[in-house]
Amino acid sequence: MKKKLYTAIGLMSGTSMDGVDLSIISSDGYDEFSNLFDDYYEYDKILQNELIYLRDLINDEKDLSKYSKKIRELERNLTIFHADIVNKSSEKYGKPIDLVGFHGQTIFHDPKKKITNQLGDGLLLSQITKKKVIYDFRQADIQNQGQGAPLTPIFHYILSKKINQNYNMELPIGFLNIGGIANVTKVIKNSNIMNENLLAFDIGPGNCLINEWVRKNSKKKFDKNGEIAKSGKNNKLILDQAIDNFKIETYFQSMDIKNFDISFARGLSLEDGCATITNFTAYLIAQGLEHVSNNNSIKFLVCGGGRKNIFLINCINNYLTNKNKVKLEIIDNYNLKGDYIESQAFGFLAIRSFLNLPISFNNTTGCKGFTVGGKLVENF
């Protein structure tokens, strides 16, 4: 018997805090998936600056209390922005929407203390858009002894099945998402037993350090195509010191932008600092990929904004010690939109949450067994 298809909007704003990716998808929450619509909405400069400023203020749970009034005010403004783009895209799409998957904007994430904070008022979003909203996706996983991230692996699994069917790509298949943080999923085999089939974790910084360096040392927001880094010189001495001083003790621990900083590049020119930080990022990503591959042959499909940074991708390839077994390929080559994988994922996660299906597993977030995350609100 064919399962019911739901239409969902997925909303995703990453650590770059530049805007919101919006996708409309159709899925049964199991195996069927179709991408219907994608769009990007940039934050205005005031909202972006306020978000970055607030994130920089919040360093522990005391700060969450100390700046609670500012958090509430900014959360309201952010939610109104999301409501506006949901209404705009719904009008463009022109057909009924069943659910909205609202990730919100992360300003603090510390799973050790069981705290994760994503700005976003689900009740207000539901009230303004007149739609059912699923939000607060990470908290249930953290309360279930998980890391609260990454949450996209279950969606990567669905994509792997489509890719396997359409392109006859052999398993295992890897997914490398280079957002603010780099995370990786390994789909081991074609099995519905997710704890045996999926392996996922964060592996290091993605765009966060590069973007921060560029923002603080120029009028640009990011290093387009890696052109700034390419024009600079990697400072090998500083890079080696940074690598020696930063050790990832375990990959089974989610990462936040605040786990890293750019102070090691202080004093370098814009170009040399960007080249050195990009090499640092690439080295950690390459180490993570080889850990995941476990000396087996695997192709990683690269998604997220970082896939466009040609210099970064080249550096990752340079740091791979087993180039014959670990391959990188842009996910767009498989008729998928690399910019919108995460927003599509949160539409899919909204449907699974609505159906009371698990969205995270022991081998993806470290949670106990599995977790059905997300909160449903219908405030209209």
How would you explain this protein's 3D organization?
This protein has about 375 residues and is of the alpha/beta class. It has two domains: about 5-150 and about 340-375, 2-Layer Sandwich (Nucleotidyltransferase, domain 5), CATH 3.30.420; about 155-335, ATPase, nucleotide binding domain (Nucleotidyltransferase, domain 5, 2-Layer Sandwich), CATH 3.30.420. About 40% of the residues lie in helices and about 20% in strands. It has helices at about 45-55, 60-65, 70-95, 120-130, 140-145, 155-165, 195, 210-215, 225-230, 235-245, 270-295, 310-320, 340-355, 360-365; strands at about 5-10, 20-25, 35-40, 100, 105-110, 115-120, 130-135, 175-180, 180-185, 200-205, 300-305, 325-330, 360, 370, 375. A six-stranded mixed β-sheet has the order 3-2-1-4-7-15. A five-stranded mixed β-sheet has the order 10-9-8-11-12, sandwiched between helices.
Would you identify the CATH H-level superfamily of the largest domain?
Answer: ATPase, nucleotide binding domain
Q: Strands of the largest sheet, in order across it?
A: 3-2-1-4-7-15
Structural class: alpha/beta
The low-pLDDT segments are none
End-to-end distance = 33 Å
Shape category? globular
CATH level 1 class label of the largest domain = Alpha Beta
Percent in helix:
40-55%
Q: Outline the biggest β-sheet.
A: 6 strands, mixed
Number of strands: 15
Report Rg: 20 Å
Number of domains: 2
What is the typical, i.e. mean, pLDDT? 95
Number of helices: 14
Per CATH, the architecture of the largest domain is 2-Layer Sandwich
Order of helices and strands: EEEHHHEEEHEHHEEHEHHHHEHEHEHEE
CATH topology (fold) name of the largest domain: Nucleotidyltransferase, domain 5
Range of strand content: 15-25%
